TrEMBL record:
Subcellular location per the Swiss-Prot or TrEMBL entry: Cell membrane
Protein's membrane topology: Multi-pass membrane protein
Domain Major facilitator superfamily (MFS) profile: 1-436
Pfam families: MFS_1
Species this protein is from: Glaciibacter psychrotolerans
GO molecular function: transmembrane transporter activity
Protein name: EmrB/QacA subfamily drug resistance transporter
Main location: membrane
Transmembrane regions: 23-41, 53-72, 110-134, 140-162, 174-191, 203-220, 240-260, 272-294, 306-327, 333-354, 413-432
Keyword Nucleus included in the entry's annotation: no
Amino acid sequence: MQTILLPIQAQLPTLLDASRGDTAWVITITLLVGAIFTPIAGKLGDMFGKRRIALVLLALLVAGSVLAAVTATVGPMIVGRGLQGMGMGVIPLGIAILRDVLPPKRLGSAIALVSATLGVGGALGLPISAFVTANYNWHLLFWVSAAIGTLSFVLFLLVIPVSTMRTGGRFDGVGALGLALGLGGVLLAVSKGNEWGWNSVQTLVPLIGGILVLALWGWYELRHENPLVDIRVSTRGAVLMTNLASIAMGFALFASSVVFPQLLQLPEKTGYGLGLSLLQASFVLMPSGLAMLAMSPVAGRLERRFGAKPLLVAGAAIIASSYLVAVFVDLEIWHVLIINTVIGVGIGLGYAAMPTLIMGAVPAHETGSANGLNTLMRSLGTSIAAAVVATVLAQSTVQYGGSAVPSADGFQVSLGLGLAAALVCAVIAVFIPKPKAHPAEHASIPEGTI
């Protein structure tokens, strides 16, 4: 859902007969809604059943895909893409369901496999989308999305058992609204700051407003009987440090996702571009997602033997090593292929470790909301990376063919930022403390996660 329109992003104004500013929302709205709704979906899953909420989200995803498939105007397209974004709340619910239904000895490998699908979907989605848009009507992309969503719905309905662990209670509507407004403001400013100008009123108003709303939201949540996000649990050392590491790893992941596609597609005559088409570049980048998938059984075995914390440290160190090579080597196509694949290995290890660390530090009845918050932290890291790297590349340009393109120095600085983020993630991971559960929670913590 995130990469499906990237191959035709520049053509959307013509395809939808709208301004470039309006069509940019077709991309942005999915990321915003997904980030905002992920923790909300997690809490709803804890309260009313993870399977039930996942089915609702998948139905909304299918509805959004069908709406986008049958429209050629920007307004309904934005609505459809927003509904697709709501479907992203299935991710933390799926990970939380694993804890409810699997024995502890299988939990680590299962979490690693499900986490790996995050990278696999993006890695496979880009070349598939490029191929479809090059050979067929672009609306076919959304019919494919609808088919995948329908298949997922049917499999969830037939395979996943009905949730038995539910907290019930009244949903914190005020907390959900506050989180949506606060996060929406901050993420909107971050995602649009480079386009609007970081010092512009358009950027500063939602940024400052969002921060103020989040501060009030935190105050309110601390005093609410059944909060959307349990701030006290979220500020436990193990949970807080893991979430901070998640932001850094999300940044490290997306820095390469911004740099490498552009570097691969720039003309060779620039002196540093590699001259590939979008489809060719997609195939060079695809093995990274497949590496994440291949690492999932390995990550599970490593987690059982050494624990989740060393796994996260190792993943961050592998990513940092890859960026270190990228910074100091004159990159060729095969370099990018290997470096990006190794980054995928590191991400696979890290993404397997983080949910396990979270679930080892929170009560069983809060796994949905806790995983939702952790998924949000990863999304926050990728959003910050997209904004920061885009700003760096926009401010470091050279003229080619009458237009400005990112310079070699801009790419170097961006890769250096990815390196720094990976190192920060590794350092934070080293200091993640051993979870200290309350006596009533000990029975709900899976073996091998502490």
